[in-house]
Amino acid sequence: MKSPIRSLATLALLIFTAAVPAALAIDAAKSTVTATFRQMNVPVDGEFTKLAGSISFDPAHPEAASARIEIETAGFDLGMDDYNAEVRKPEWFDSARHPKASFVSSGFKALGADRYLASGKLSIKGKTIAISLPVTVRREAAVTVFEGSLPVSREAFGIGDPGWNEVLDDSVSLRFHLVQPR
Fold first, then answer.
1. Does pLDDT of 10 surpass 50?
2. Does 118 reside within a domain?
3. d(CA 131, CA 141)
4. Which is nearest to 114 in space by CA: 133, 131, 137?
């Protein structure tokens, strides 16, 4: 015969597990992460072409949401092979030693009207910084779309040759559009 405490604990675990949806992989082919920076006051866009990750999200329980996104730094595409090779070097992303950048959430907070504040840790080039970023969540027919942007300091992550500081702004805007099948 099972003890009442063990039965109650099992029931509580089942209820909690049912309330937290399983993490579903994002559709990398339909998702984008773009970095915009200013070079000599002219905006330049580059896209991270290789990303993966999963998100667990229930709008009824945003506090239980979680996200884990990984981006291959060698997949940063500025549209020209020479530029792409340059940003993989040690002064920039150091893709050989730090092949991936990542964001791992520690919580979501509802802000109203399909807007949330995701908190977590952003890791780039071996440095990890706690961040909070606004996220808009849209449910469409067969997918859920997570969108947002955040400013990132190149200097905080040691990205860029100091000789470029006169021509490149420190602030980079990261925009994401993550599509997750339902």
1. no
2. yes
3. 31
4. 137
> Mind listing the pLDDT tens digit for each residue in 49-82?
999 999 999 999 999 999 999 999 999 999 999 9
pLDDT of residue 19: 44
User: pLDDT, tens digit, for every residue of 97-140?
Assistant: 999 999 999 999 999 999 999 999 999 999 999 999 999 999 99
* Number of domains forming the structure of the chain: 1
H/E element, 132: strand 127-139
Q: Which domain holds residue 92?
A: 22-181
φ/ψ of residue 126, rounded to 5: 80, 0
* Strands, sheet with 51-56, edge to edge from the N-terminal-most edge strand: 24-25, 51-56, 66-72, 100-112, 115-124, 127-139, 143-153, 171-181, 32-39, 42-48, 76-77
- Residue 38 within a domain: yes
Q: Amino acid identity of 27?
A: D
> Whose CA is closest to 105, among 117, 94, 93, 113?
117
Answer yes or no: are the C-beta atoms of 142 and 109 closer than 8 Å: no
